[in-house]
Amino acid sequence: VCGGTENMSMAPLQASGIETRWGGVALGKGLQLSDSLWDGLTDMHAQTPMGMTAENLADKYNISREECDEFAIRSQKTWGDAKEKGIFDLEMAPVEIQSRKGTTVVDTDEHPRPESTLEKISGLKPVFKKDGVVTAANASGICDGAGSVIVASEQAVKDHGLKPLAKLVSYGVTGCEPTIMGIGPVQAIQQALAKANMTLSDVDRVEINEAFAAQFLSCAKELDLDMTKTNLHGGAISLGHPLGASGSRIVAHLANEFQQSDNTVHVGAACIGGGQGIAV
């Protein structure tokens, strides 16, 4: 069983250093706390926030603010269309929440905003630099989530009478410059395809995690992706990006889509903070 979970909404504040507890700061006097979530979203070696890595890519690949906002709306609208068609039904695991008012069943992602419009989000200010392209609307959201998949060998499938949803043909894991970590999926996808003796023309569906619109669009430009078969049902900009769960979410979505289409080859990929890319 492979998977992960992330509770980003409750990431704790932290007081770092042994001096804080053992005599460095008197009780109630000037204690400095840091947000573990923001700390974790900054590359400590490159001293670069993840949002700035997207800004760096926007500069390198000439990605405009308008392009980022248009892609963000695409993510929201395509999620809404897919939800209406029941495309996510196979992969969702409903959660029951008990309260004084009774039982609430959560079976739909809460983060998407399919009602968003270009007019509404175009007025948002850039977050990471003046005249930048990254805003709250065209970046992946902070949210909670969990995902899980079962990976089995061919022999285990036979021994246990399992019915596979998909077959893992190849994978790629690569490194890249940390300050442009979002370009990591490019080489990872190329590596995975090379191992399988395939090219992108052999692929029916491509799913690249939408950490930031600028990051996704840079990958799309570098790979010359066919957008008619790429991220067709929204992504992290609409769904959110609970870090430890996003890999399982992408794989589960692509695996279940085989059951709803005549597709034969799918590729999923994500960038990784610190300067990596991964693809299957």
Automatic annotation (TrEMBL):
It comes from Cyclophora tenuis (Marine diatom). PANTHER family: ACETYL-COA ACETYLTRANSFERASE, CYTOSOLIC (PTHR18919:SF107), ACETYL-COA C-ACYLTRANSFERASE (PTHR18919). It comes from the Eukaryota. Residues 162-280 form the Thiolase C-terminal domain. One of its GO terms (biological process) is fatty acid beta-oxidation. GO terms for cellular component: mitochondrion. SUPFAM superfamilies: Thiolase-like. This is Thiolase N-terminal domain-containing protein. Belongs to the thiolase-like superfamily. Thiolase family.
